[in-house]
Amino acid sequence: MGALHKVLARAGVETHGVTLPGHAGQPEDLLDVRVEDWMAVVTQRYRELCGQYEVVHVIGMCLGALLAVELCKRESHTRGALVVLSAPVFLDGWSTPWYRGLRYLLYHVPGVPRRIRVQEEDPYGVKSELVRAFIKAGFARGDGFHYQWVPLACVRQVDRLRGMVQQGLEHLDCPTLIMHAEEDELTSPRSARFLGSRIPGATVVMLQDSYHMICVDHERDRVMRDVLAFLGRDPDLVRVRKRPAAADAGVPAQAAAGWSGSSGPCGSFSASGRGGTGGKPSPMRRRWQSGLGEPSGIQMSNSRHGVGRFS
Description:
9 strands, two-stranded antiparallel sheet, AB_hydrolase_fold, about 15% strand, about 300 residues
């Protein structure tokens, strides 16, 4: 989730994190993880924080966003706001191929979901070429910040969670901010529109110059400012950097280093057949990427003020 937790801390918001089952280890750790395991950890941490703080905000990115929405539904969350970043309610972004629906058949073939590996590739959910370069360098060094593949069995659990999230959204009764990129390669703007049309009073913000990983991409400053403003904090704590016309010139070196997390299923590393341009791949070069291999994030913020972050 980029530097969001640091910005929240500067704004006087305490942040709290939980490592989700299957994260911070090896991709094989995800083979036997179920939605129920993720929800149990998130729910336990949420209830602990509610016992410590009067106000608790829940913030989630990608898989974390789905968990955040489902948590707030199940717990009838009214103790603070809900912030939903790049929620993959539908896996229908421009990098997903026409045959993506065939995975539902493979789920029922004995042993296949455990054997199939869904690989992660360029552009890794990031439109910024410089940030992408840091991601590639991290892979080359063998850094453990991100799984390079996830088992199809994990994608199956994400599909189960997506189905849960789509039900009962009209019962949410907390201020909700939804942020999503128009060019999200993993999950199209349809996801944001779906949530915005069903969550009462939800605010929807669409970004024009990012891919899926909006917290570390070109518009990360806007994301942080909008989140601060939505939580009633000073958005001017984030200085907006002007990006020169030349692609990515002047983007700070630490842009890709702010992820809170541990490796695991979430996020947005997806496929592009064209390197170096930041554009979409040629249709002949597209291959489906799970978008589930990078650091996931749910944050909870409470006021006395704090945020719980699940990653």
